[in-house]
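Recall the central idea of this unit: under ordinary conditions, the amino acid sequence of a chain determines the structure it adopts. In this exercise we apply that idea directly, starting from the sequence alone.
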Amino acid sequence: MLTRRRLLASAAVAAGGAAAGFGIDRALSGGGTASAAHVGSQPAGLPLRQHAWTATLKQDEHGNALPPRFDRLLFFEVRGRATPAHARTLEAALRTIERRYPWGPSGLLFTAGWGPRYFERTLSIDSPIPKARALSDFELPSVDAYDLCLHLACDDQERLREVEAALVNGAALPGADGELALSEALRWRETRTGFVGAGLPAAHQQTGGIPPGGPVSEQAPLFMGFKSALKRNQATEDDVTIRSGPFAEGTTMQASYMQLRLEDWYRHLDERERVARMYAPQVSPAEARRFTTDAKSDPEGFGEAVSRYGVVGHSQATARARRDGRPLILRRDFNTVDGGGAGLHFVSIQRTIEDFVKTRNAMNAAGAQLRNPSITDTVNNGVNEFIFVLKRGNYILPPRPLRSFPLLPGREAALS
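Accordingly, the structure predicted from this sequence is:
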């Protein structure tokens, strides 16, 4: 078990050259040492946990939390040799945002997550989380090697654009009373965008990977047409919170970028067949439409699904990975049309990355094909045939007081 004493004892800030950016250059400023930004005050009452979002969310008529309608993932590398001034620059920006917007989807929600590269390259210590990797024989993702991921979410898409422009380019943020530009401390590398909620997938369905004819209904919160946030199919924030050690009251996050190919999903499968693959073959479309707080796809019926129906349901397979009868992960995923095609940014938080791995492995339904040859790794096996993992990265979300350059020597004094 990693302890704060052990990590701090071994921490040494390493020099790090910054790799060249890719894609569209947002004209970040050149190198140099981060300035001593004015940190400023923090609003009272903010939760200790960065990931404490649920209490701020609206609910549907059944008590299911409704996620923020728009999301952005901003990825950064540490610029040059990290110093306490880097931590001041980042913390000053995050506190400015907290003063500008109330904590919630009507204002702004965000988390700062740190990848293995930050701990190993910047601090020269062992990472508290493993590097991401492929988790099946039929995926070959590019593994992200970023230092920092900022996840921004709210109900106002334009607000996310403005906050990104302020953080990345130093643009003025209307109503803000402090510094936001991160370029002296962090080099921006990539942005991923998206949406979730009734009406939004339908409005974006004229894109690659979705057949013409408007198959995505106005009621669907996601491109595949089904709900993913029923509360009994989600871990709670308490479930996913780290309980002890240097990151107690934090959590871990993984972010996978998946391409969706839904031509066959809508053209060649009828509603019953889609329900069978999303939930379980024992579930009827009428039952699926009546789901309120639980997508009842009993994992106890997994054997029957394999032997009798020759089809494995996605929810049925993943429900086999549980702790005390509850899911291991809390999904905060959202659809996207990044790159000109339908996709899914699958963001999940969990107590350990191993909890995500267990859930993802359960989704593979390994061994089902040995019991019924009509099932393969992808064919008749949940939604595996329709999703293709392009990128994946793992991060740790410290508690709020440690979110800016965690474990960097001298950061506490610089932020006091």
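The two ends are 28 Å apart (CA to CA).
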